[in-house]
Write a structure and sequence with these properties.
Blueprint: H1 3-23, E1 27-29, H2 32-48, H3 50-56, H4 58-63, H5 68-83, E2 87-89, H6 92-111
Antiparallel strand pairs: 1-2
Length: 118
């Protein structure tokens, strides 16, 4: 993964957070700069904490056919909201809806072929 690809992913993640903040009541991002910081925070937490949580919750994740991953993602969003000023989520339901929409945006973006190899 080259530097262009990393920067593109970072900006797309920040834009996705802005989209979610505009459409999900209870999900607030103060500025694009805050969204960039949140995207970095989410990336770090998803890289360090999420794998451990996924392993610990594997039985319930198997039982729910993977849907429990959305709950984990919502909880991680709430954790980032507690850590980064300017990013707030008013409760679990907005976090869960936000997690689903962020997943949808990420899936759509990764399905679209880019004309230039990154």
């Amino acid at each position: 993964m080259g530097p262009f690809s990393i920067a593109a992913n970072w900006i797309i993640s920040a834009l996705a957070l802005i989209v979610v903040a505009n459409y999900v009541p209870g999900f607030h991002v103060n500025s694009f700069t805050t969204a960039l910081i949140v995207a970095i925070g989410l990336g770090i937490i998803n890289a360090l904490i999420k794998p451990v949580i996924l392993i610990l919750t594997l039985p319930i994740n198997i039982l729910t056919l993977g849907l429990f991953t959305f709950v984990i993602n919502a909880l991680l969003l709430l954790l980032v909201a507690k850590l980064i000023p300017g990013f707030t989520i008013d409760g679990f339901i907005p976090a869960l809806i936000g997690a689903v929409i962020l997943w949808l945006i990420s899936t759509i973006v990764h399905l679209v072929p880019f004309p230039v190899k990154v």
